[in-house]
Specification:
Strand content: 25-35%
CATH class: Alpha Beta
Number of strands: 3
Radius of gyration: 13 Å
CATH topology: GIY-YIG endonuclease
Distance between the termini: 34 Å
């Protein structure tokens, strides 16, 4: 199984989009400060993930979500969640 996942940084209120074959392990690495791109953005919260059978499909989805159109769709899809997170 291949996963794309989205983390929300409570520190800077930004998103991190990633790809992995082991979601539990990868989230734990983020939480332990083992990932250079997120170590200064803790605490992080997993807000979304998707599972794929094919690596190519997961990588294509990750690239789409990292694009301008993908981020726009994501923010629209999760707007109620973002409203709740930003009001805290």
């Amino acid at each position: 199984m291949y996963y794309i996942y989205i983390l929300y940084s409570k520190k800077d209120k930004g998103l991190y989009i990633g790809f992995t074959t082991n979601l539990k392990r990868r989230i734990a690495e983020h939480q332990r400060n083992s990932v250079a791109s997120t170590k200064n953005r803790l605490p992080l919260k997993l807000i979304h993930y998707e599972a794929f059978l094919l690596k190519e499909d997961a990588q294509a989805r990750e690239q789409y979500l990292k694009s301008g159109y993908g981020r726009k769709q994501l923010k629209s899809q999760l707007k109620r969640l973002f409203t709740k997170l930003h009001s805290k």
